[in-house]
Amino acid sequence: MPSTSALSRLQSAGLYALELEAVSRHFGALVALADINLTVKAGERRAVLGSNGAGKTTLFNAITGDFPPTTGRVRLFGEDVTDLPVHERIRRGLRRTYQISLLFGGLSVIDNIYLACRGVSRGRFSLRRPRKDDSGMEAAETLLSAVHLDNVRDTPVGDLSHGQQRQLEIALALAGAPRLILFDEPAAGLSPTERTELVEILQALPDHIGFIIIEHDMDVALRVSESVTMMHNGRIFKEGTPEEIENDPEVQELYLGHGHG
């Protein structure tokens, strides 16, 4: 499969998808991140967990460049991007979703996806209307199916359920050629049925696309990830497999409670 060969090429290059070296972020006297060292392999699916205020979203902001690190270095696939702006990191294959939906509510689902595909293409500034065989529209139709939104293709985004809007955000993050996606609480506010569908979508992503997911729903996070980083007070507290994290007594005490099953 193409995705498998792409993953093999990335892994054979011996480069990590993401490397954080002693990354800290200060807001005045507040230390939101403190000396974070983290590596994520190409194609890896990792969950970053922790209570509110643990530094999870600040970590994402440091990776994407929304709020660059106060100290430390960020590398994407071996390239130092610490001082690069957000759009340059996007060009290098980094994508992100946010806790608050960022969508064009008055446009249809397919138009939102098409604009995302167009936005990362060479012809993004062209004023010509797309042709029927436009490659961007073909890509948009593929992503529409990948996130299970075929039945609402022409529906205005403002009329979608919250869960459908979350699915659409995943489609937008998949536009272009992403190599690493950061998902910021994609299951927030979803019903049990919608969460099941979210898990199916994430598990079906091509092998060469790695992701990091911040998620308060432990069942979702542990089902879609192969490694877990626990954060506490702006620092990395624990790392391990989903099974190791779930069964760790200190993790249970701090985050899960003794009754988690």
UniProtKB/TrEMBL annotation:
| Molecular function terms from GO | ATP binding; ATP hydrolysis activity; L-isoleucine transmembrane transporter activity; L-phenylalanine transmembrane transporter activity; L-valine transmembrane transporter activity
Query: Which Pfam families does the UniProt entry name for this protein?
Result: ABC_tran, BCA_ABC_TP_C
Decide whether keyword Acyltransferase is in the record: no
List residues of the ABC transporter domain: 18-258
Extract the PROSITE patterns matched here.
Answer: ABC_TRANSPORTER_2
Acetylation as UniProt keyword? no
So which domain of life are we looking at?
A: Bacteria
- Keyword line: ATP-binding, Nucleotide-binding, Transport
SUPFAM superfamilies from the entry?
A: P-loop containing nucleoside triphosphate hydrolases
An annotated GO cellular component of this protein is: plasma membrane
Q: Which biological process annotations from GO are given for this protein?
A: D-alanine transmembrane transport; L-alanine transport; L-isoleucine import across plasma membrane; L-valine import across plasma membrane
Please give the name of this protein.
Answer: ABC transporter ATP-binding protein
What is this organism's lineage? Bacteria, Pseudomonadati, Pseudomonadota, Alphaproteobacteria, Rhodospirillales
